[in-house]
Amino acid sequence: IVAVHFENCQDVFSFQISPNMNPIKINELAIQKRLTIHGKEDEVSPYDYVLQVSGRVEYVFGDQPLIQFQYIRNCVMNRTLPHFMLVECCKIKKMYEQEMIAIEAAINRNSSNLPLPLPPKKMRIISHVWENNNPFQIVLVKGNKLNTEESVKVHVRAGLFHGTELLCKTIVSSEISGKNDHIWNEPLEFDINTCDLPRMARLCFAIYAVLDKV
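Now predict its structure.
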């Protein structure tokens, strides 16, 4: 069961749903319920709205099943009721634009004291994390001042965590040896898409020495 209410509206609608249902379907159910109670309004599309987790700046949207979202999984584990607010996409876009204007103003204030004029600004290409459907990837460059013997091989194990929960399988680098600096320059790709990473996810590393078996 999930609870949904519209922004600036007292009514709270509850729906018994399948964990494999996607967020757009919940949008449809909430809009139909409001039309049933309050009568016909201007034609609206479920794609004009997005589900915001109540009390958080966290959103649930897209074609993925609900159970794939970290917030839903936490509610299931804790046996709590997921509670959403249905917000118009245009309001989120407006809020985003206002934040970008504020950031631009802060940058311009800080740069106004420079003696030389700034070059003409280029158009910025903005990409959103939630639109990146590629696997999350990093480049392991090097490790400095590792306390190992020159002949001892070491490797790095990297993992993505949300709290104490491991989000996907850990990745292990190749084994190399060195005196002080160990250089990998090796890409590490995780079995999770960038858009599926929850807020406050942490990337953790551990360095292991490879010991010969006796």
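The mean pLDDT is 83.
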